[in-house]
C-alpha cells in the first residue's frame, strides 16, 4: 500500500494539483486583503461608512450582515475576472499554435483543418486568377 501511495504522489499531475491549491489559497488571501484593506475603505468613502463589514440590517430580530456579503461578492468578482483573463490568455496561446504537435523526429505535424483551409484558399486564388484572365 505504501508503494502504491508513493507512485500516486509522485505523478506529475498530483504535484501540479497540490501546487495549484497552494497558489490558489495564497491568491485568495491576497484578494481578501485587497478587498478588506483597499476597496472597502474606498467604497466606504462614497457611502459614508468606512468599514463595509459593519453594514447590517435587522428584520424581526434577525441580523443580515450585508457588508460581509458585499465583501464576498467583491472577492468572487475579482477572482473570476483573473480566471477569465487566464483562460483568455490560454485560448489565445492555443490559437497562435503554441500547442503544435511534433512527430518522433521533432518535425511539426500539420493540423488537418489548417491544411484543408489552405487548400481552399489556394483554389480560390487560382479560380480568381483564371476568371481575371478570361475577362481580358
From TrEMBL:
UniProt topology in membrane: Multi-pass membrane protein
Record keywords, A-Z: Cell membrane, Ion channel, Ion transport, Membrane, Transmembrane, Transmembrane helix, Transport
Entry-linked InterPro entries: MS_channel, MSC/AndL, MscL_channel
Main subcellular localisation: membrane
Gene3D superfamilies the record matches: Large-conductance mechanosensitive channel, MscL, domain 1
Bilayer-crossing regions: 12-39, 59-87
Keyword Transmembrane helix: yes
Localization per record: Cell membrane; Membrane
Record-stated family: Belongs to the MscL family.
Oligomer status and interactors: Homopentamer.
Cited function: Channel that opens in response to stretch forces in the membrane lipid bilayer. May participate in the regulation of osmotic pressure changes within the cell.
HAMAP family cross-referenced by the UniProt entry: MscL (MF_00115)
Name by which UniProt lists this protein: Large-conductance mechanosensitive channel
Organism annotation: Companilactobacillus huachuanensis
Name of the gene: mscL
